[in-house]
Amino acid sequence: MKEKYRVAIAGCGGMGRSHARAWSSKPRTQVVAAMDVNRETAEKLALDYGATAYTNYNEMFAREKPDIVSVTTWQSVRAEVTLAAAAAGVGGILGEKPMSASVGEAQAMLEACERHGVKLAIGHQRRFDTQNVEARRLIADGAIGQPGAMLRRDGEGLLNRGTHEIDEMRYVVGDPMPLWVIGQVSRKTDRWERRVRCEDRCAAIVCFEGGIRGTYESDLPEPGLRGDIVYGSDGILKRGPDKTLLLLNEKKAGWQHLVPPPVGTDQFEEFIDWMDGRIEEHRSSGRHGKVTMEVLMAIYESLRIQDVVTMPLTTGPNPLDLLVEEGILPVRVPGRYDIRAPFPEQTETSPVKPVPVWPPPQA
């Protein structure tokens, strides 16, 4: 246990600044270095936090010898930075979500951290949300009986918001392992998300241990389902207004309005506790991040093999890349576009192409 941990930030965009603010707010951690491929971006963050700026992460690791590294780069390079940090001897790595751009990369990250004795967590911060923490406790205590089905809906891609939804789905019912996945994906536009290919639309059913079914959909047409409900053998649990929970139990009349108690920690404070040895494992540890990646990639893989995917997923590359490169999902609306970080050819007047309308308009 150290009196104060030295923190380095790899990737100084919006999430890098968010991590820097959080670490700086803790009395046990100090941001000492900031790295970004854009020197000006790195220097701005470093100036704000009294740190040293770098444009090369290997140089930063060698000179600063940080105890903790926040890897807040785009997911397309997150694995390479994590592998380098682990080899450099850091004590802990907090990576942003999604864990990586493929299951193969996620596995390599886990293996490297295990080999070098590095603690690895992934920033699925919804595991600290008061509603989710209390929902997990209530379900574990049998408030709705045996959970049987869950619904989640969002937009803007699996590797963007989908990673939160799938991870949250597992968390509230006690982190059961997925058994199989069946999914459908459409990609007619050349859509990307921070330089990783992104689907136009998708939907999936995930079967977890105990037979729990999770239904997930992204960017599908209206009307939409309410994506925050867990159905059990004895009742229903869903989000209510103002951070409350609504519980319906067959043994009690009417809906109960519950106010979740404060959580009392966050992902950064819990990471410090993990570094100190006060807890056995961070609730967002890398092993959970890898399971989430497997489910995301299995949705793509289900379309690629045109069948149910038995878990764990063993396909290392990103199956969406394989689908496009093998001609199974050809681009029908030309013109690549990134929904989060526009390509150079994207103009200010049309930075993002719309997802194709379904059903298509009549001629």
Task: Supply database-style keywords.
10 helices, nine-stranded mixed β-sheet, Dihydrodipicolinate Reductase, domain 2, single chain, alpha/beta, 363 residues, Rossmann fold, six-stranded parallel β-sheet, disordered C terminus, 2 domains
Detail the topology: elements first, then pairings.
Blueprint: E1 5-10, H1 14-24, E2 29-35, H2 39-49, E3 52-54, H3 57-64, E4 68-71, H4 75-87, E5 92-95, H5 103-116, E6 119-122, H6 130-140, E7 147-154, H7 158-172, E8 178-186, E9 189-193, E10 196-197, E11 201-208, E12 213-218, E13 228-232, E14 235-239, E15 245-249, E16 255-258, H8 267-276, H9 286-305, E17 309-310, H10 319-325, E18 333-338
Parallel strand pairs: 1-2, 1-4, 2-3, 4-5, 5-6, 7-12, 9-18
Antiparallel strand pairs: 7-13, 8-11, 8-17, 9-10, 11-12, 13-14, 14-15, 15-16
Helix pairs in contact: 4-5, 5-9, 7-9, 9-10
